[in-house]
Amino acid sequence: MEKLVSTAESRRFMIDCFKIFGVPQNYAEQLADLLVAANYHGQISHGLNRLQHYLNDLSTKSADGTAVPKILKESPATAWVDGCNALGAVIANFCMDLAIKKVSVGFMPKIPIIVKCLVGIL
């Protein structure tokens, strides 16, 4: 018999899983939100079924759950970002926040990123 799990319960479960691997609450929430959104919007291939992939990457240190992306070089309209092997959602959110700041002061930003992991649905 098929049983549906609520979005909130799926999100909680994923956050708990990420925290077991030392991922900070904020990062765990970002990644869980991305995976839940993928499922909700019908992108099942990028949703909850990716949880094991992310947990494997964290357990083998292929991804660093605590890494903070950093700006390597920046101008008023551009930034070159190193994802520092962080989780894809964390890198994407970092770059999007940076782009929004640049747009808010009148620039059309271009932000190339060094990424070695899955970013998910964008």
From TrEMBL:
Stored InterPro entries: Mal/L-sulf/L-lact_DH-like_ah, Mal/L-sulf/L-lact_DH-like_NADP, Mal/L-sulfo/L-lacto_DH-like_sf, Malate/L-lactate_DH-like
Annotated transmembrane regions: none
GO MF term (any one): oxidoreductase activity
Source taxon at top rank: Eukaryota
Pfam short name (any one): Ldh_2
UniProt keyword list: Oxidoreductase
Family: Belongs to the LDH2/MDH2 oxidoreductase family.
Full protein name: Malate dehydrogenase
Organism in which the protein naturally occurs: Glossina morsitans morsitans
